[in-house]
Amino acid sequence: MASGLVRIALECEKKSSPTSTEKKKKKQGVKLLEEGVWRSYCNGKKCGYALRRECGEAEWKVLQAVAPITMGAGVLPVEKEEGGGEGELMYMRARFERVVGSKDSEAFYMMNPEDGSGGPELSLYLLRA
C-alpha cells in the first residue's frame, strides 16, 4: 500500500439456474458475503484463492485485542502453538464504506480522513460471475 492504490477483487462462481422444483425448495440463494470459495486478484493479477472461514478461538483473541483500536496499523505479538516461540501478527483497522451494486456485486472502500487525496487507498470488490 505504500506504493499506491491497492485493489483486491474476490470473484466466485454464479450457480446455474435452478429448476422450478429447486426454486420452490429454496426461495433465496446464498448471500454474496456467505459464499465459500473465491478467486482472488490483486491490482488485476490473479493471486490465488480465498476461503470463507468461521472465527475460531485464535481469531476471537485477535479481534478482542484490536477492539479498543479505532484506526491504524500495527503488530501484535502472538504465541505460536506448534513448536513454541513467538511470532507477530500485522493488523490494519480502518473505516470502510460499503457500496452494494446488486445481489452479485459489492465493494468496500477504505476511508482515510487524514489523506488529502480523497480517494481510497484500499478497495475490495466482491463479484459473483
Automatic annotation (TrEMBL):
Name by which UniProt lists this protein: Protein MIZU-KUSSEI 1-like
Record NCBIfam families: A_thal_3588
Pfam families registered for this protein in UniProt: DUF617
Gene Ontology BP terms: hydrotropism
Lineage of origin: Eukaryota, Viridiplantae, Streptophyta, Embryophyta, Tracheophyta
